[in-house]
Structures are given as C-alpha cells and as structure tokens.
Write a structure and sequence with these properties.
Layout lengths: L1 E4 L4 H12 L5 E4 L10 H4 L9 E4 L2 E4 L1 H11 L10 H22 L1 H9 L5 H32 L15 H15 L8 H10 L3 H6 L10
Parallel strand pairs: 1-2
Antiparallel strand pairs: 1-3, 3-4
Helix pairs in contact: 1-3, 1-7, 4-6, 4-7, 7-8
C-alpha cells in the first residue's frame, strides 16, 4: 500500500493510526500541502479532489480518510475499529463524525488560508476562529462521552478506556489528530476530562505514538 499524505494533515494522521493499529505496512509519500504539492500534475492526476490522504491499494486509489479507514476495517478483521453491534457502531460513527464533519471542515488548512488571503483577516482573528469552533466541537464531544459514561454506569458496565469501550475505535483515530492540531493553536482543554482521558490513553499505545507528526519523514518543526 502507498499512502500519500502530509505530516500535519489530521485526516492523514487518522489513516496512519488505523494502519498502525492493524499492523499494515505501507509506503509513505509526502504531499506538502503548504507548498502546493497537491495541485501539481503528478498528484492532481491521481487525486480527483486534490486532497490528502490518498491510499493506493490493490490497483485502486481511495480518498477521504473515513472511507479509507472503514475499507481497511472491512478488509482486515484484526484490531476492529468499529464494534460488532449496529447500535455501538452508530455511536462510534457519531463520535468520529462529530470531529470529521463538524470540527475539522471549519478548521482545515484551506479554510484558514482563505480567511487570511481572501477575506483579509489577520492571524489573531484566524486563530480566534479556530479556537472558537474547535472548542465548541470538543465540548459537544465531551457531552457525548458523558452520556455514554452515564449509560454504562447505570447498566453496571465498565467505564470506557478510550472514546468508546476498552479498545481504540474509529472515534479515537479522529480524536487524537484533532487534539494535536488544537494544541498547535493553544486551544483550551479545561473541562474536558473524558475527552482528554481518552486522548492520554491512546497516546500510551505505540500505534498512536508512531503515527504522530514528529515521527513522519516529512516532519518540519
């Protein structure tokens, strides 16, 4: 497998985590978004949306991190990232989409660039935009985790170690990169005990440690 990605891309980070959790080897190909590599013909001819990540596997090219991760989960049964029961799967997907569909689209690189270059907002305003939407999203995420914790306690079930249950799921693949990005923008994490506990537990695992930006071959401080 070949993973076209960028060390700072949270969507790419998600896929790197999933590949590591499943123990799947891959070739790392850097697409430097800040330098515009995604617009060059060499990559643009591979990627219809000209975004990262892009996974080349079995002669096909797959885009969109959530679709890639679910494909990996469906084709490699070890270390499942979605639970077996439909209700549990729906809850994990809801957590994952709270980040991938609600927080991330408002805060990704091209949106932030547009705020500065096209709408003429200064860096302070751009950063305030990021922190506002990130914080709102993480508070909603915390409420979802709290609701699950109350349900588990009521039914005599063990508390979740990660976002949902005792093993990492698709939700954790989304949460960890979001927290990494939020740290870069100095977003506050107070009042998010369940969210940060899940993050801390994930970061104890080699799969998450190895996937982080500072371990990528194209890392830049």
């Amino acid at each position: 497998m070949i993973l076209h990605n960028y060390f700072r891309s949270s969507a790419s980070f998600r896929v790197r985590i999933a590949l590591n959790l499943k123990g799947l080897p891959y070739n790392y190909v850097s697409v430097h978004l800040a330098k515009g590599d995604h617009k060059l013909a060499a990559y643009a001819n591979k990627s219809a949306d000209r975004l990262v990540p892009l996974l080349e596997v079995d002669g096909e090219s797959l885009s969109q991190s959530m679709a890639i991760i679910e494909y990996l989960d469906e084709t490699h049964a070890n270390s499942p990232l979605l639970p077996k029961k439909p209700l549990d799967r729906a809850k994990v997907r809801a957590l994952a989409q709270s980040i991938s569909c609600e927080i991330h689209p408002l805060n990704n690189l091209r949106v932030l660039k547009y705020l500065v270059k096209e709408l003429k907002q200064d860096e302070a305003t751009k950063n305030a935009w990021y922190v506002h939407w990130c914080r709102e999203g993480l508070e909603a995420f915390e409420r979802q985790l709290a609701s699950d914790a109350a349900y588990r306690a009521k039914n005599g079930q063990a508390a979740s170690v990660y976002c949902y249950g005792s093993t990492p799921t698709l939700a954790d693949c989304c949460l960890v990169p979001q927290i990494f990005n939020a740290q870069r923008f100095n977003a506050p994490f107070d009042g998010l005990p369940l969210t940060m506990a899940a993050f801390d537990n994930c970061m104890k695992l080699p799969a998450f440690q190895q996937a982080q930006p500072s371990n990528c071959p194209d890392f830049e401080a």
